[in-house]
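May I ask you to comment on the folded chain given beneath this request?
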Amino acid sequence: MKIIAFKVHERSDISLDDVLNYIKILPYEERFFQTSNGSVRLEKAVCSRSGNWYLDFTKIRTSGPGKTPLAAPIEDFELNDGDGFGEETAVYYDKELSVIIMQYNHYGPRSPSISSYLYAFSRKISKKPVNIDKNEEKDGFNLVPIMKPDARDKLQHMRLARSIVFSIHIPGINTDEINQNQSLGKILDNPLVAQAETLKVEIKASKKRDASLPLPLIKDAVRSLLGERANLTELKIIAREDEEAPAAPIDFLEARLQVDVPLVLNGAQRYPLEERWEALQRTFQSWRERELLR
């Protein structure tokens, strides 16, 4: 199981605690929210004595796989009317550090969809209309990927940025991800780009020796693009640490803090929720002790 880390930034005075406490007492049928990447629901929300949260989100699919016996043809799963197939994403939220440790499930809810889900319920709490196409409104939460220390240091010490190059796999992008990244959304709005397989962008400074792209914008772009890591295929910056140093490429593709941990499938061929939560909490403790969650 791949595990990734995010810093939580609240966009209003409605806290993540407020939203989770609001959702957890709702009946299950009232916990759904239709994101552009499928219907998402908070399945379980357990608050520890220390105020930290263990969460499990599900993306509901109305069509799914069949059951394949070893010595017989594929057959249907027996489902009741209204039932669907669920893809889960487990989350651990540390309130003190405002950090989310998240299971990565390519087919389940990912950070943009979870952010949209939390945004929707923060709007419901404040009795404001939910318009997911205007997610820049001051409600909800930004989930910003935490970077590895070496990548963070390289970004911090950068003095001159000659160019930035990134490539994105277009079919993998969904509307929730675009809503979280307005600049990227404007590029993808072009009908020609929408029909492409891959978008590759190269932005260069002028040819003057000391010319540089604006560093604050470069740093924001790196953090924003790392939020699309599942669809990002290239992210490089040609940079210098000072005016005298030679320009050199810096690869930020693997800059996001993440780890793979082994888990054992249960008899139903699923990873048990309690084991996923334990793996997230262990990873959090390890990263915290090593002071990586900054």
The radius of gyration is 21 Å. Residues 121 and 127 are 9 Å apart (CA to CA). The chain has two domains: 2-146+257-289, 149-251. Residues 2-146+257-289 form one domain.
